[in-house]
UniProtKB/TrEMBL annotation:
Pathway of action: Ketone degradation; acetoin degradation
GO BP annotations, alphabetical order: acetoin catabolic process; epigenetic regulation of gene expression
Keywords on record: Acetoin catabolism
CDD domains documented for this protein: HDAC_AcuC_like
Source species, domain of life: Bacteria
Pfam families: Hist_deacetyl
The Histone deacetylase domain, residue ranges: 24-321
Lineage: Bacteria, Bacillati, Bacillota, Bacilli, Bacillales
Species the sequence originates in: Staphylococcus ureilyticus
Descriptive protein name: Acetoin utilization protein AcuC
Purpose of the protein: Role in growth on acetoin or butanediol. Involved in the breakdown of these compounds used as a carbon source.
């Protein structure tokens, strides 16, 4: 990596206020844990920090309907009626109403847009927004812990204001349905999602036959993986499919979503990957950005619900990949462990390696690998 590259990191304590309830699995505490780990390591410095702003209604409207934005405003004040709550996806146990939700959700979007502008004006070459990645939110409906889809809005913003071809690479265990449906008939953006199959997992979409419609046909790429997919098969499929798609589309900038819920300890998914795969993914995407987009890439957070054992170590490597630092070895900083041990609901890890004490061997490994490769080969045939 050339030393001329500069990296932005979106953060403010206000981002932590995007929070449904104390018991809810989506917990922005993981962002604070990661940010402090990077600071304690000495890699994250004040000059990296990009402060978020609150996105305007016009910016949110690049993806979301005005009536939906107004419904979120009403929910912020506790005045959304039951029929509206149902219509706008705010009546279930996943995506709950909370105080000031419009402001806290629009701030996550504004953080992404601030970073995008700073990359386009040359302040930064690349950057990450680990508090974002809310890829399930639909144009007129909250969905899957996501109120406003900061990923989709940033894509639309880059197309509108900078006339860019944008590629989104989504490696979250859940299919990036909100982003996909927002651009399903559009050929300015290519949406690539590699995820656990929807057979047994929310949101149930993301079959490899979902390829876009009308002008957008061929601009949606889905790679569904079998439950219990392990590192080797995951990385094999990613390596086989990703670069041909990037090379074919020729993006001006890459946006990527780094949900870390493919880890075997994640409580909400059925994948069997380890930190080894999670450490590799951002380095692969960074290398593709250096090769195809002049280094321009924005890496978002996304899912990841084991907030003590998985997320901080995995997300730290998103930032390390961007600044050109190697994968970490050995022990985690004592300062970080001492600071968070009193709050942790389990024993904190002390090294960068997965201990794998409770890793289950997968008996159907060969069969899983073959099914995954079959889908990958099918997708590849479209880019030959």
């Amino acid at each position: 990596m050339s030393n001329t590259q500069k990296t932005g990191f979106v953060y403010s304590n206000e981002i932590l206020q995007y929070r449904f309830s104390n018991q809810h699995p989506f917990n922005q505490m993981r962002l604070k844990l990661t940010t402090e780990l990077l600071s304690d390591l000495g890699y994250l410095k004040p000059e990296h920090i990009v402060k978020p702003r609150i996105a305007t209604d016009d910016e949110l409207n690049l993806i979301h309907s005005y009536d939906y934005i107004q419904s979120i405003r009403r929910a912020s004040h506790g005045i959304l009626n039951d029929n509206e709550a149902k219509k706008y996806g705010l009546d279930g146990s996943d995506t709950l109403q909370f105080r000031m939700m419009h402001k806290h959700s629009a701030r996550i979007v504004g953080g992404a847009l601030n970073l995008a502008d700073k990359i386009m004006d040359g302040t930064f070459t690349n950057g990450c927004h680990l508090g974002g990645g809310l890829h399930h939110s639909l144009p007129g409906r909250a969905n899957g812990f996501c109120i406003y889809n900061d990923v989709a809005i940033t894509i639309a913003y880059l197309i509108k204001h900078y006339d860019l071809r944008v590629m989104c690479i989504d490696t979250d265990a859940h299919h990036g349905d909100g982003t996909q449906w927002s651009f399903y008939t559009n050929n300015d953006a290519l949406i690539y999602s590699i995820h656990e199959t929807g057979k047994f997992l929310f949101p149930g979409s993301g079959n490899y036959t979902e390829r876009g419609n009308e002008q957008g046909f061929g601009y949606t790429v889905n790679i569904p993986l079998e439950p219990y997919t392990e590192d080797d098969s995951y990385l094999e499929v990613l390596n086989e499919t990703l670069e041909p798609v990037v090379a074919s589309f020729k993006p001006d900038i890459i946006l990527s979503v780094h949900g870390v819920d493919i880890h075997y300890l994640d409580p909400l998914t059925h994948m069997s990957c380890t930190l080894n795969a999670l450490y590799e993914i951002p380095y692969k995407i960074k290398a593709l950005a250096d090769k195809y987009t002049d280094g321009k890439v924005i890496m978002f957070g996304g899912g990841g619900y084991n907030i003590w054992k998985v997320v901080p170590r995995a997300w730290t490597h998103v930032f390390l990949a961007l600044i050109g630092e190697q994968q970490q070895q050995g022990k985690l900083p004592e300062k970080w462990i001492a600071k968070w041990t009193p709050y942790a609901t389990c024993e904190l890890p002390t090294t960068w390696k997965d201990q794998k004490l409770d890793y289950q061997l997968i008996p159907r490994r060969k069969e899983i690998t073959e099914i995954n490769m079959k889908h990958a080969t099918q997708v590849l045939s479209w880019f030959k």
